[in-house]
Amino acid sequence: MNERHTIQLPPEWGFPTPEQTGYLLRELRTEAPVEHVLYQQPVEVFAVRTTCYDVAYRLIESPARIVVVHLTWVGHTECEGHPTVGFDGSIPEFCDFFERQYAESAEHQKTGGRNHATPPPRRTATAVILAILDRLNTCGAVTPAKVR
After folding, report:
1. Do residues 105 and 113 touch, judged by C-beta distance below 8 A?
2. Taking Cα atoms as reference points, which of 109, 108, 125 lies closest to residue 117?
């Protein structure tokens, strides 16, 4: 029996099409630097998130292990720390983690954040620009001479 028929994925997640599988594997191979947990690891695409670029990869040599990676689609090898890993664990833990995350997000949207002790901080345009420049500088794309 196909394993996919027995697994209930969390909301916002789906099983990949054969076409998606091919390009998601290629993009992981393109982006993952030597330091990345999935660098040159034999993996298969287990699931894709429909709301963003998160991909759940399953390790061939450890089929119970799922690693969720947020692809950046830069088209070249990323700097250390990217693409980011949002989850690393078993299939049941994956389903529980993202089910809880979805429920918390839905509750936050429903209540406008009123049930949370501390609302998430708002970022000013300056803070966003500085975060982008910091990321570019970390990857070696920007030097102080290029930023005015």
Report:
1. no
2. 108
